[in-house]
C-alpha cells in the first residue's frame, strides 16, 4: 500500500525500536508522520535482552502496561561465568535500586517490534511495511523527502524532516559517507535458539548470562525468553570466528564445546533451525544530522552486544532526536544545528559504555578484584550496567579504572583471587 499523502512533516525510515519510537513521539506532538520499513512485519531480529533504563522511554511512549501484561520474560539481573566455568553470584538490579525501572524484559523481537509499530500507529503515525526507501530527495545539500517503492512504481514523498532509523543498512550514513567501522571492535556473532534449555528463575525472573570460552577467544550470551526458548550466541573477532573455519554451524559447535557455562545449560535441549550470522557490527558516524535529516538508533552507530545496550541506545537516541525534530518543526527550522542538538549529550553518555566494552575485551577487567580496591565506584559501575550512562558519578569511575587496567595488564594476576566475587557483584574473567 502506498502512502496516503505526497507530503509529511516527517518521514521515518526503518520500523525497528528507534524508528517506531521517533514516529510515535513526533506524531503524538501533532505532526504528520510516515513510518516505513522495507520488510514485512513482524520479523525476527537479534537484540533480545533490554537494559533497565529503557523503562523511561517505554513510559514516555505509553507502552508500560502492555509490556507488564505481555508474555515477555522478566529480566531481573545478569550473571557472569569465567573461562573455567566458575559462576558469579547473580547480580540483581533491584539491589541497587528497588524502583520498577530496575527490572526489564527479554523480548521476542518480532513481537516486541510489532508492539512498538502498532503503538506508533495508535499515536497517529501512518505506518507501512514492505515499503522500500530507494533514495532521498535533495535541494542542494538539504534533504527534502524520500523516493519510496511499495509494490508498484516508485513515488516521491516530500518531508520537512527525514529521520533515518534504517539500522545497519544506514541509508543516509552510507549515502553521505559518514559510516566508520571501529577497527578495534571488528567482531562477529553466530546465534540460534534452543527449546528446553536450562532455565533459572530464582530471584523472581530470568537473567542474562555472559560466559567466556576456555581460551578466552570468544564469549557467549545466554538469554532465556518466554515459552521455554533460549537465545544463545557467540561473539569473537571477525577473522577468528568466520575466516577459514568452515560453515557457521560447525564454528558455533566448536566454540560451544569450549564454553562450559553454556554447553552444560543447553545439554539435552533442542537446537532450532534458525542459525544466523552478523559481522563487523561496531561502527560510528561522523555527524548525526544535516539540513532536513537526522540519524537515530543503529543508523547513528552501534557499539557491541556485550552489555545489552543496543535496544536502549536505539530508543533513547530516537527519543532525544524526536525532541529535536519536534523543536525544529515548531520553529520551522529543520537545520542541522537544531536536528542534531541531542548528539553531544548522548555521545557523552555512550562514551562510557564504549569504554566499558573495551575494558571487557581487554581481558583484564575483573569486577571482584576491582571492587576490593575501589568499592567507591561500584555504584557508578552498576549505573552503567543498568544504562544510567548520564549519571554524574560515571566519569569518575574511569579515573581509577583506566590506570587499574593498565596495571593489571603489566602484572600477572593472582590465581587465588582473580575470579572472586565481591559483595555479590559478578567477576568478569
Would you give an account of this structure?
There is one protein chain. With 429 residues, the protein is α+β, with helices and mostly antiparallel strands. It is built from 14 helices and 19 strands. It has helices spanning 17-28, 55-61, 64-68, 109-122, 171-175, 238-242, 248-257, 260-266, 310-330, 336-339, 343-362, 367-373, 378-386, 394-410; strands at 7-13, 33-36, 73-81, 91-92, 104-106, 126-128, 132-139, 142-149, 155-164, 179-181, 187-195, 206-212, 218-224, 229-237, 270-271, 276-279, 283-285, 289-290, 293-295. The strands form three sheets. Strands 3, 4, 5, 11, 12, 13, 14, 15 and 16 form a nine-stranded mixed β-sheet that branches. Strands 1, 2, 6, 7, 8, 9, 18 and 19 form an eight-stranded mixed β-sheet that branches. The chain has a two-stranded antiparallel ribbon with strand order 10-17. A hairpin with a 2-residue loop joins strand 7 (132-139) and strand 8 (142-149). Mean pLDDT is 91; it is low at 415-429.
Amino acid at each position: 500500500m502506498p502512502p496516503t499523502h505526497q507530503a509529511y512533516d516527517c518521514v521515518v525510515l526503518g520500523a525497528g525500536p528507534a524508528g517506531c519510537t521517533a514516529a510515535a513521539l513526533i506524531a503524538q506532538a501533532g505532526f504528520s508522520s510516515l513510518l516505513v520499513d522495507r520488510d514485512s512485519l513482524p520479523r525476527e531480529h537479534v537484540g533480545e535482552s533490554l537494559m533497565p533504563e529503557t523503562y523511561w522511554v517505554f513510559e514516555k511512549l505509553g507502552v508500560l502496561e502492555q509490556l507488564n501484561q505481555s508474555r515477555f520474560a522478566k529480566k531481573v539481573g545478569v550473571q557472569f561465568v569465567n573461562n573455567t566455568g566458575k559462576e558469579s553470584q547473580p547480580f540483581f538490579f533491584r539491589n541497587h535500586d528497588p524502583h520498577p525501572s530496575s527490572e526489564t524484559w527479554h523480548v521476542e523481537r518480532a513481537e516486541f517490534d510489532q508492539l512498538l509499530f502498532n503503538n506508533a500507529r495508535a499515536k497517529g503515525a501512518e505506518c507501512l511495511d514492505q515499503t522500500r526507501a530507494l533514495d532521498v530527495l535533495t535541494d542542494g545539500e538539504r534533504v527534502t523527502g524520500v523516493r519510496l517503492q511499495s509494490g508498484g512504481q516508485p513515488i516521491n514523498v516530500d518531508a520537512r524532516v527525514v529521520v533515518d532509523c534504517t539500522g545497519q543498512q544506514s541509508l543516509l550514513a552510507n549515502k553521505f559517507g559518514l559510516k566508520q567501522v571501529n577497527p578495534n571492535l571488528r567482531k562477529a556473532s553466530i546465534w540460534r535458539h534452543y527449546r528446553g534449555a536450562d532455565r533459572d528463575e530464582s530471584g523472581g525472573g530470568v537473567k542474562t548470562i555472559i560466559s567466556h570460552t576456555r581460551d578466552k577467544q570468544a564469549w557467549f550470551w545466554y538469554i532465556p525468553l518466554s515459552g521455554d526458548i533460549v537465545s544463545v550466541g557467540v561473539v569473537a573477532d571477525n577473522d577468528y570466528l568466520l575466516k577459514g573455519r568452515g560453515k557457521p554451524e560447525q564454528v558455533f559447535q566448536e566454540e560451544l564445546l569450549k564454553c562450559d557455562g553454556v554447553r552444560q545449560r543447553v545439554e539435552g535441549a533442542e537446537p532450532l533451525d534458525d542459525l544466523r550470522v552478523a559481522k563487523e557490527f561496531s561502527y560510528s558516524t561522523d555527524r548525526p544530522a544535516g539540513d532536513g535529516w537526522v540519524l537515530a538508533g543503529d543508523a547513528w552507530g552501534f557499539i557491541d552486544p556485550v552489555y545489552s545496550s543496543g535496544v536502549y541506545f536505539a530508543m533513547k537516541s530516537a527519543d532525544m532526536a524526536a525532541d529535536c525534530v519536534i523543536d525544529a518543526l515548531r520553529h520551522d527550522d529543520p537545520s542541522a544545528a537544531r536536528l542534531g542538538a541531542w548528539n553531544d549529550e548522548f555521545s557523552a553518555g555512550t562514551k562510557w559504555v564504549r569504554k566499558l566494552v573495551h575494558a571487557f575485551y581487554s581481558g583484564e577487567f575483573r569486577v571482584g578484584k576491582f571492587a576490593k580496591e575501589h568499592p567507591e565506584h561500584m555504584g557508578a559501575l552498576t549505573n552503567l550496567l543498568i544504562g544510567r550512562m548520564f549519571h554524574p558519578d560515571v566519569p569518575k569511575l574511569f579515573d581509577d579504572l583506566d590506570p587499574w587496567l593498565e596495571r593489571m595488564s603489566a602484572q600477572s594476576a593472582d590465581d587465588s583471587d582473580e575470579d572472586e566475587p565481591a559483595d555479590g557483584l559478578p567477576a568478569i574473567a
